[in-house]
Amino acid sequence: ANSNNQGYASFLQCLSLRIPPSTNISQILHTPDTTSYSSLYLSSIRNLRFVTPETRKPLLIITPIDESHVQASVVCCKEHSFQIRVRSGGHDYEGLSYRIENESPFVIIDLVNLRSVAVDPKQGTAWVQAGATLGELYFRIAEESESYGFPAGVCPTVGVGGHISSGGFGTMLRKYGLAIDNVLDARLVDVNGRVVDKESMGEDLFWAIRGGGGASFGIIVSWKLKLVLVPPTVTAFTIRRASSEGAVELVDKWQQIAPGLQEDLFIRAVVQAQGGNSEKREVEALFNSLFLGRCGELLQLMTQTFPELNLKSSDCKEMNWIRSVLYFAHGTDEKAVETLLDRGSKPEKSFKAKSDFVNEPIPRLLWERIWEWFLEDGAGMMIMDPYGGKISSISDSATPFPHRQGILYNIQYYCKWWESEATSSEKYMGWIRKLYGEMSPYVSQNPRAAYLGYRDLDLGKNDEEGSKTRYSKAVVWGRMYFKDNFERLAIVKGTVDPSDFFRNEQSIPPLESRS
Ligand code: FDA
């Protein structure tokens, strides 16, 4: 304990030497004995699964208000062998931005105060700091110009730092691709505490942080984004169909046509059980859509391509783009647009998710079985986003995210629960793992693909012992997330962080270049 205390004191001294004298250090350092520590720690945790008495807490939380504070934190953590967990929005599905599974002392660098958004409507670009949320980004874009939007995720409290570095997709993915396909530049603090941008970090590192996860390579401080054009009026709809209304047939048809529709049209399909544990449980299909155009045109398109859904003009809601963001986030566009600025303040539920990609339509018989599984034990949902269009037109190696060409749609299996007992966790986790197992013959193979943004530690983790992660072990889950891009990611890692300082349970291991 004594040497720990000494290390800790020396760490604080290191920081105070490196942080500019104009900074009030107590504003940015939160030790367990300060009143801010607990509320700050919980503030952006999304998953109650990781709020347990056993979860190890950080030695301290640092909330930088300037790039130089991030630089000082990296240098001092490295000098003192403290691991870093960097947190932007805290939405990591496995909590890797605020927890660690081994015994190493660690520090959370929470970027909540680095969240400015500077929109340049003339250039159609924006610099956004990593700690901003998607809601803040969308709100600030719309504040500056009605002509622009940005193609990223649906949930407004997700952080830009983790989201963009892991890919980032939402309702405009068919028209404009992923968030990473629209990144122009970035500023990153590297393992030596230097700030680098696109030019000085080099092509390989700039490639790696757009989809390979930021946490393996450094701390992203800000992104420069290319904004995309949105029309003044867009149209959204949500249609629910019960089994008695042909839901199974509709999902079967959806998977055949949704990836081939024109790219202004995105129709998400969700399969979920309604009615909880009651005998009246019913399994429904929900179709949630954004069309970058007016209702009249959408009705025509739907009549030609998906008449079975029987879309009527009374189902369509016309609105501007920023209201469509609200609509997808909250199921209504009638809330104040300012609600997009809410960041949340504590975790409310536990959840577990897993992902798949589909190359061939799933046989109709299987859909019927899926309905039966949900009916027997409807613990969660399957959320399916169609690909095709822009996302699939980019080469699989252009960014680390490789699930593009030939992919029909992405599946996210998701279940949530409010009960805190361990038996509940076992029940829901068991349900989702079983469903994932049953689906294996029908989804992408060799490797079975997964999306880093829906992180899943069931796929594998780095060794807990020793200080270096191992390529030979990581390649199993690495190829699921990145396919052939995994090797290039590991080589980039070996070049920019050979001592593997930036590591976690699923970080990219360093590999020496073979050339
Ligand atoms: P968090 O802060 O937890 O970070 C995630 C990972 O990135 C961690 O490993 C962390 O250390 C690292 N990291 C964070 N900031 C960094 C930085 N500045 N530099 C380097 N590394 C950094 N995805 C999607 O594509 N589309 C969607 O619509 C949604 N919707 C959605 C809803 C909800 C409710 C959740 C919980 C999640 C999603 N996601 C999603 C997934 C989401 O994109 C993914 O979890 C992101 O990594 C979250 O980014 P945060 O910054 O919030 O997470």
What secondary-structure arrangement, pairings included, does this model have?
Blueprint: H1 2-18, H2 25-28, E1 29-30, H3 36-43, E2 60-62, H4 67-79, E3 83-87, E4 106-110, E5 117-120, E6 125-129, H5 134-144, E7 148-149, H6 160-166, H7 173-176, E8 183-189, E9 195-196, H8 198-201, H9 203-208, E10 219-226, E11 228-229, E12 234-242, H10 247-257, E13 265-274, E14 282-291, H11 295-305, E15 317-319, H12 321-330, E16 350-358, H13 364-376, E17 380-386, H14 390-393, E18 409-417, H15 422-439, H16 471-482, H17 485-496
Parallel strand pairs: 2-4, 3-4
Antiparallel strand pairs: 1-2, 5-6, 6-10, 7-11, 8-9, 8-10, 12-14, 12-15, 13-14, 13-17, 16-18, 17-18
Helix pairs in contact: 1-4, 10-13, 16-17
The chain binds dihydroflavine-adenine dinucleotide.
Report on the structure:
- Strands 15-12-14-13-17-18-16 form a seven-stranded antiparallel β-sheet. The chain has a five-stranded antiparallel β-sheet with strand order 5-6-10-8-9.
- It is α+β, with helices and mostly antiparallel strands and 515 residues long.
- β13 (265-274) and β14 (282-291) form a beta hairpin.
- 50% of the residues are buried.
- α1 runs antiparallel to α4 (67-79), α10 packs across α13 (364-376) and α16 (471-482) packs across α17.
- It folds into four domains: 2-113, Uridine Diphospho-n-acetylenolpyruvylglucosamine Reductase, domain 2; 117-229, Uridine Diphospho-n-acetylenolpyruvylglucosamine Reductase, domain 3; 234-319 and 348-454, Vanillyl-alcohol Oxidase, Chain A, domain 3; 460-515, no CATH class.
- The protein has helices spanning 2-18, 25-28, 36-43, 67-79, 134-144, 160-166, 173-176, 198-201, 203-208, 247-257, 295-305, 321-330, 364-376, 390-393, 422-439, 471-482, 485-496, and strands spanning 29-30, 60-62, 83-87, 106-110, 117-120, 125-129, 148-149, 183-189, 195-196, 219-226, 228-229, 234-242, 265-274, 282-291, 317-319, 350-358, 380-386, 409-417.
- It is built from 17 helices and 18 strands.
- The longest helix has 18 residues, at 422-439.
- Dihydroflavine-adenine dinucleotide binds next to β3, α6 and β10.
